[in-house]
Amino acid sequence: MSHPVTGHQYEIAAGPYRAVVTEGGAGLRELTWEGRPLVLSHGADEPAPAAFGQLLIPWPNRIDRGRYSHGGADHQLDVSEPRYDCAIHGLVRWAAWDLAEHRPDAVTLTHRLLGGAGYPFRLDLTAEYVLAGEAGLTVRVTARNTGPVAAPYGHGAHPYLTVGSPIDDCDVTVPGERYQPVDERMLPAGPPVDVAGTPYDLRKPRRLGEQAIDNAYTGLRRDAAGRAWARLSGGGRTVSCWVDDTHPWLEIYTADEAPAEHRRRGLGVEPMTCPPNAFATGIDVIELQPGDAFSGSWGIMSG
């Protein structure tokens, strides 16, 4: 008897929304509204291409040469992105997660990350996906340090928003006051820069055209509830991604190097608790003490 390569497929639904979350990586494989995709999806027998829908734990984005220091010790992670000589997107996006609860409108998965080479810390992780007919999808990620020493921690996620047409023809809104320049290895090149007067100013809706972006934004404008909203609009449709105030960073990626059939068909809008190369720089890294927990939420909805 064969099984999907991404493991069990957990379907949830509420009102016009439907989602599929995978055992592999606790990833968001599908999200639709009235049968129309809100994120780029992939097959159950296809490992997530270009990190589609994956959770990025215990760090998002890149770490230069996989090297960082913490607690007076130097650490060397596996270089998982040889092209740029970096460790990328954490340690759990290909791991099997355990089912904790599955209701018609929600699923909760857990994973125990044990200490290993480069990250000798222990975390108990929980990912909860909830659908509501009005609010769409809410994702809540929690990490608890169940080890004996403080652990460096950050998390992120990698959905690609879509309205079913190429993003070149779409209007994009990103609420960031500053963006992070990067060098030829996609690592930070100096401090974040004010977006005013640059092609990266997306604070008001703007047609994307052929502009390529693979940069983190910060200084996020927020609503009264503390949420920052990014939006993609086109063809009479809009899809929105929000992040709570535990996420001061949003990576925006125009999918220029996604597989050909998906290239620039969706906009990567990646909630992040810390910026690229954070373990090496220390910027916004969470010092998770033994017994402590950290949670953050984000979500996607139509409109």
Automatic annotation (TrEMBL):
Pfam families associated with the record: Aldose_epim (PF01263)
SUPFAM superfamilies on file: Galactose mutarotase-like
GO MF annotation list: aldose 1-epimerase activity; carbohydrate binding
GO BP terms: galactose catabolic process via UDP-galactose, Leloir pathway; glucose metabolic process
Protein name, per record: Aldose epimerase
InterPro entries found in the cross-reference section: Aldose_1/G6P_1-epimerase (IPR008183), Gal_mutarotase_sf_dom (IPR011013), GH-type_carb-bd (IPR014718), YihR-like (IPR037480)
Region feature Disordered, mapped onto this chain: 182-201
Organism field: Actinomadura craniellae
